[in-house]
Amino acid sequence: GLLDMFKLQSGTMVVRPEAADAARLVRESVDLLQPLAASQGTDLFVSPEGLELPATVDPALLDRVVSNVVSNAVKFTPQGRVVVLVDGDDQCVHVTVRDTGVGVAPEDVARIFEPFEQASTGFARTHEGTGLGLAIVRRVLDLVGGHVSIESEVGVGTTVRVAFPRAWSAADVSPEDGPAVSRPALEGAHVLSVGLDERAEDALDRWISRHGTVCAVSALGRGLREARKTVYDVVLMAGSDGPAERRQTRAVRAVAGY
Ligand code: ADP
Question: Is 68 in the pocket of ligand 1 (CB under 6 A)?
C-alpha cells in the first residue's frame, strides 16, 4: 500500500493496459475475497453472472481498485450481504459495490479518501487496515480517467460506485517530467525504517532516496536507540500491530521531538 501511494503521489505509477474482459477481471478479484467473506458469515456475489465486457485495462491496477473497495465492504459487513454489480456502456465500465454493513458517518465520508484516514483510529480502532485503500483507489482512478463516489448510512450500509473508461492509455511518467504532486512532502525527509525485510527495504530505498534519506535498522531495540539519537521525520516499523511493536511505537512517541 505504501509503495503504491509513493508511486501514485510521485507520478511514477506505470499503467500497462492490455486487452481483457473487464467483467471477468472483476469476478476474479472478488473470488479471491470469498474466503474472507465466508470466515465472517458474509454473503458476497457478483451480478450479473457471465457478463463479458471487452476492454483495454491494466489488470493489476484494476485488481487494486476492486479488491480495496470490496474488501472494505466485506470487512465492515459481518454477517451481512455484499453485492458487486458490473455493467458497461460504450465508453465506461461501472462497478457498484453495495453492502449492508456498519456504514460511515457523514462527517467521516470526505476524509476516508485521504491517505491513512480511518473512521476509527488509534489503538482503539475496531478494524485492521492501513487507511490507504480508498486513497489508492481514488488516485488510480484519477490516473486512468475514472472516478469513485460513496453513499452511506450508519447502521444501514454503504454503496461505493466506481467508473472507469473501457480504454486506458499507458501513463508511463518518469519522475522528472511527471506531476510529482507530493514531492515537497518527501523532499529532504529523514526516514528511519525498523525491522523491514530486505525486499521492502530495497523498495523503500528506491522510492525515498530520490528525495530524502533512509536509515534502516533491523532490530526493534536498535530502532529506539536510533530514534533517541536523531529525530526522524518518519519512522516506519514492520508489523506495527504486534504487542512488541506497539510498545516500541509508544516508546518512540515518548522521545522528545516525536
Ligand atoms: P482501511 O480499510 O485500510 O482502513 P481504507 O482507505 O480502505 O482503509 O478505508 C478507510 C476507512 O473508510 C475505513 O477504515 C473505514 O472506516 C471506512 N470504510 C471504507 N469502506 C467502508 C465500508 N464499506 N463500510 C464502512 N466503512 C468503510
Answer: yes
